[in-house]
Write a structure and sequence with these properties.
Strand order of the largest sheet: 3-2-1-4-5-6
Number of helices: 14
CATH superfamily of the largest domain: NAD(P)-binding Rossmann-like Domain
Helix content: 25-40%
Structural class: alpha/beta
CATH class of the largest domain: Alpha Beta
Radius of gyration: 23 Å
CATH topology of the largest domain: Rossmann fold
CATH architecture of the largest domain: 3-Layer(aba) Sandwich
Strand content: 25-35%
């Protein structure tokens, strides 16, 4: 498979890093020679300096033989024109574009992306993806990470284990016996900065960050077992009324249970636009780190505070101040990955990294076989893959104990018909099942091979 990535910024570099070790021929295009040099020096990829929308640049990048083009430059317009050139001149089969402007994303203009107009096969909106991620965090406040699989019937929960966690120092095998009816599996553990897939004899310790795949109906019970209190979300303070903050506020207004929401925005024009767009949300104009304004927003009584300005440092400091004033949970948007190790020491409960979220969305359209969903964990350390099993899939008809999965792979949940089950070693994977699999990054190619569909299927 040959993929051209346009843009060597954070998203482009991360995508190239994901794909370069997976027997995929990757070429990265960017107009900045330094960024291209960095990609070529650190990754096993080819690099081309130039504007991705120029036909001669795409020609040099091997567009005539490319299977996919991902346009992730800083400019929506360059991304759109690049997809048009890739289609009209080079007939590239699949084109993915990252678009930020909300005007391009309005549903009433979706006809624009038809193949006989602007031929973009997949449109990725980072701001919408981030807003959805923020809502997932708010839906499960006790988890530092959460994402849905299996049509919403399974949840991946990121849980930090405290000293008072009732099941620490207990082998995972024993947990399965103690909670035999719990439809949840610990698929990943991060300990002292290292992520790994645990086996049945591993124990959990205070300070571990674990990833649990749970049936949606057992989410609350899973959190309680690992020492987290489940409390309703009634009061939220949002710092930043840009596209992300506004989208979250609108989603909170649509929720069945009433949530009292206040937004703090430093730009008057932006604050006025937010006030005009919202019905029940109180919009305050001012600095999100101002103690008097935070007090006016009743930060001390807030169940959650979400800092989503375009300044990482403002988001982090606002979250720290909110926690110091008594907010139960603080979540902040962080673009710079080097700042994420500060989250724990600063007592920030969760963070949202737009780069990781965007990469996960794009990977979903790259993965081979019948992969329907992908979520990238941490700094490209592991992935959760959701895939459909067909008659020619190599794992079809086999019990899990008989499938030659790599050591860093665990099956966390399986949908059989209308039921989502917790798999055991005796569980047989049948045609029509949908599986959710945790795989360390180095094991993803082998998992893809096990999920591939034979050409005879088609």
């Amino acid at each position: 498979m040959r993929i051209i990535i346009c843009g060597a910024g954070q998203v482009g570099w991360q995508l190239a890093r994901h794909l370069s070790g997976e027997r995929i021929d990757v070429t990265v295009i960017d107009s900045n020679p330094e960024l291209v040099r960095r990609v070529m020096d650190t990754l096993d990829v080819q690099g081309v300096v130039g504007f991705a929308s120029h036909p001669d640049v795409l020609e040099r990048a091997g567009a005539r033989d490319a299977d996919m083009l991902i346009a992730a430059t800083h400019s929506d317009e360059i991304n759109m024109v690049t997809c048009q050139v890739a289609h009209s001149i080079f007939a590239i089969t699949k084109k993915v574009a990252r678009l930020r402007s909300q005007s391009y994303l309005n549903a009433i203009y979706s006809d624009l992306y038809r193949r006989d107009h602007m031929p973009i096969d997949v449109v990725i909106s980072p701001e919408r993806e981030v807003a959805d991620a923020a809502m997932r965090r708010l839906a499960v406040p006790a988890a530092f990470d959460t994402v849905s699989f299996l049509d919403g019937d399974a949840e991946l929960l990121g849980i930090s284990l405290d000293d008072d966690c009732p099941v620490v120092n207990t082998p995972l095998r024993q947990l399965s016996d103690l909670f035999s009816t719990l439809r949840a599996i610990v698929v990943g553990v991060r300990r002292t900065g290292t992520l790994f897939a645990p086996d049945a004899d591993d124990q959990l310790f205070p300070g571990d960050e674990i990833y649990v795949l749970s049936h949606k109906d057992d989410t609350g019970r899973s959190l309680e077992i690992f020492g987290k209190k489940v409390a309703p979300l009634e009061r939220v303070v949002i710092v930043g009324a840009g596209n992300v903050g506004l989208a979250v506020a609108k989603s909170l207004e649509r929720r069945a249970g009433r949530v009292r929401t206040r937004i703090i925005e430093g730009d008057r024009a932006c604050a006025e636009r937010a006030a005009d767009s919202l019905d029940r949300t109180i919009v305050l104009h001012g600095d999100g780190m101002d103690m008097e304004l935070l007090a006016e927003a009743h930060i001390e009584a807030a169940d959650a505070m979400l800092a989503v300005t375009d300044d990482d440092k403002v988001n982090i400091l606002a979250a720290v101040r909110a926690k110091s004033e008594g907010t139960r949970m603080a979540i902040c948007l962080v673009n710079d990955p080097t700042l994420t190790p500060l989250m724990g020491p600063l007592d920030i409960d969760a963070y949202i990294n737009p780069r990781t979220i965007t990469v996960s969305s794009i990977l979903r359209h790259i993965r081979q076989g019948q992969v329907r969903g992908v979520y990238s964990i941490g700094d490209a350390e592991a992935e959760i893959l959701e895939a459909q099993v067909h008659s020619t899939t190599p794992i079809a008809g086999k019990a899990l104990r008989d499938i030659d999965f790599p050591e860093g792979v665990l099956v966390g949940a399986i949908r059989k018909g209308n039921d989502v089950i917790r798999p055991t070693s005796n569980t047989r994977v049948e045609v029509g099942d949908v599986v959710a699999i945790f795989a360390m990054a180095s094991d993803v190619p082998e998992v893809e091979r096990l999920l591939q569909v034979s050409v005879d299927f088609f």
